[in-house]
Design a protein that fits this description.
heterodimer, A: about 250 residues, alpha/beta, two-stranded antiparallel sheet, B: about 300 residues, Rossmann fold, seven-stranded parallel sheet, 8 helices, 18 strands, elongated, electron transport (chain A), ET-Flavoprotein_bsu_CS (chain A), transport (chain A)
């Protein structure tokens, strides 16, 4: 079984985003970029499936600027076998991404497509579900456990009140939550080896997909700031404050 | 504009998150509801009483019993033939379903809205709430999820909606529900609690988390939350997590114990009315957003606080 893992290049998890002064977006110039953390978990899960003998090949896909190659090389260094970059300078929304990935899946015929549940830039949490809809495949979102059992995959999902398990026909879409696994660091030899693994470059036009934006961003602003309040000296003072708030009798 | 609001329900009752979605939908136009599930006649009756509600579509079928997106999305798509916007609370159930609906309608979803600016323009958080985007949708139909803490809850009583049964679109047979482990709720639910006591990595382990945080929470009648660090370290289950990747909360009072205040945590709680922070590091970022701060060793301070309340 082949596994397809879409990955996105986003602002590094540890960088505090700064809103541009002109209100057009977030300033990404000279900012450290990395693989979306949920996508790292997706790559790790796919590689573990291969190591367990469940999967035979792991293909990483990214849609984005030329530099998204670096993100794909990271996936290859972690253990993916080959990569596809669908290169575009335009920002592609989840619906457009899902349409492109549906075309890739038509060519690749993967048994599982594992994606991050959301990207930490636009926080949309849509692509996996949309891809499942377009391909008419079942979806196991927010996964904390994935087990392939023949032509079914059992997915334990993080839901509001706890956990839920669903069984899906394969091929299926899985989106990852944080506790699914802890992604590995690529070793130096593997980083070197990744440089010679195959990476194909395509464009949205190659797939005949219109990725025009449906949402227009009118402005981006900083959220209202909270100001620091007062420090209390001891517990008695805190108790008094809580009583004043009506929280304690 | 005619809206169709997804009714989130559990154990026969309409959940609070639905009421916030109703408020958001009312800003767009007429509010119709969809109650889907197995044996949900009572939920339909209850939903019809929500203030301001028009029609209540009830789809009662075993296929909808566990709200599997594969079965529910085609039902919503069918109903969207006669509605202009699908509005759902940003719960784990609806976040699973709404994008599936959007793609089937060829619509780009607007996730987690904070406000309705006009019938096609909304604000929503991006970058873990470090930026707020105003977005305008060019799609003819809208698919929207609503951040519950950003909208007042519609009143549960006062409405007189007309209940109408909807034909089932059936079981698509590509997925099935196996089981659930839903944590027993001895305390208020995080997303609707008035007071929350949250613990961070400084609690050391699951046992001390329990010994320090729970008595304080119980004294205050509060829900218990945790930072991602505490969840990652295994002190508490993931459904306790408050933050960008966990639950978004906005209680009257949020007490952060031993939480440093990482961006990702602040994203989940900074809309709380009053934030109280207890931390031994006086430079911890949490103090920059806290209304009341106490610098001290939580293992001494919290038990003392609990005993003095």
């Amino acid at each position: 079984m082949k596994i397809l893992v879409p990955v996105k290049r986003v602002i590094d998890y540890n960088v505090k985003p700064r809103v541009k002064a002109d209100g057009t977006g977030v300033d990404l110039a000279n900012v450290k970029m990395s693989m979306n953390p949920f996508d790292e978990i997706a790559v790790e899960e796919a590689i573990r499936c291969k190591e367990k003998g469940v999967a035979t090949e792991v293909v990483a896909v990214s849609i984005g600027v030329a530099k998204a190659q670096e993100t794909l090389r990271t996936a290859l260094a972690m253990g993916a076998d080959r990569a596809i970059l669908i290169q575009t300078d335009d920002e592609v929304e989840p619906l457009g991404v899902a349409k492109l990935l549906a075309k890739v899946q038509e060519e690749e015929g993967a048994g599982l497509i594992i994606l991050g549940k959301q990207a930490i830039d636009d926080d949309s949490n849509q692509t996996g579900q949309m891809l499942a809809a377009l391909l008419n495949l079942p979806q196991g979102t927010f996964a904390s456990k994935v087990e392939v059992e023949g032509d079914k995959v059992s997915v334990t999902r993080e839901v509001d009140g706890g956990l839920e398990t669903v069984k899906l026909n394969v091929p299926a879409i899985v989106t990852t939550d944080l506790r699914l696994n802890e992604p590995r660091y690529a070793s130096l030899p593997n980083i070197m080896k990744a440089k010679s693994k195959p990476l194909a470059t395509k464009t949205p036009a190659d797939y005949g997909v219109d990725v025009g934006a449906r949402l227009e961003t009118l402005k981006v602003v900083e959220p209202a700031k909270r100001s620091a309040g007062v420090k209390v000296a001891d517990v008695d003072e805190l108790v008094a404050k809580l009583k004043a708030l009506g929280v304690a009798a | 504009m005619k809206t169709l609001v997804w009714v989130e329900h559990e154990g026969g009752t309409v959940k609070d998150a639905t009421l916030s979605a109703v408020t958001a939908a009312a800003k767009l136009g007429e509010v119709h509801l969809l109650v889907a599930g197995a044996g949900v006649g009572g939920v339909g009756e209850a939903a019809a009483k929500i203030a301001g509600v028009g029609k209540v579509h009830v789809a009662d079928d075993a296929a909808f019993g566990h709200a599997l997106a594969e079965n529910v999305a085609p039902l919503v798509v069918e109903l969207m033939g006669s509605h202009d916007a699908f509005v759902a609370p940003a719960t784990s159930t609806a976040k699973n379903i709404a994008p599936r609906v959007a793609a089937l309608l060829d619509v780009m979803q607007i996730s987690d809205i904070l406000s309705v600016e006009s019938e096609d323009t909304f604000t929503r958080p991006i970058y873990a709430g470090n930026a707020i985007a105003t977005v305008k949708s060019k799609d003819a139909k809208k698919v929207i999820t609503v951040r519950g803490t950003a909208f007042e809850k519609a009143a549960r009583e006062g409405g007189s909606g007309a209940v109408e049964a909807v034909a089932s679109t059936g079981d698509k047979g590509i997925s099935s529900f196996v089981g659930a482990e839903i944590a027993k709720q001895e305390r208020p639910e995080l997303t609707s609690a008035k007071i929350i006591v949250s613990g961070g990595r400084a609690l050391k382990d699951g046992e001390t988390f329990e010994e320090v945080i729970y008595p304080l929470a119980d004294k205050l009648g509060a829900a218990v939350g945790a930072s991602r660090a505490a969840v990652d370290a295994g002190y508490v289950p993931n459904d306790y997590q408050v933050g960008q990747t966990g639950k978004i909360v906005a209680p009257e009072v949020y007490i952060a114990v031993g939480i440093s205040g990482a961006i990702q945590h602040l994203a989940g709680m900074k809309d709380s009315k009053t934030i109280i922070a207890i931390n031994k590091d006086e430079d911890a970022p949490i103090f920059q957003v806290a209304d009341i701060g106490l610098v001290g060793d939580l293992f001494k301070v919290v038990p003392e606080l609990t005993s003095k309340l």
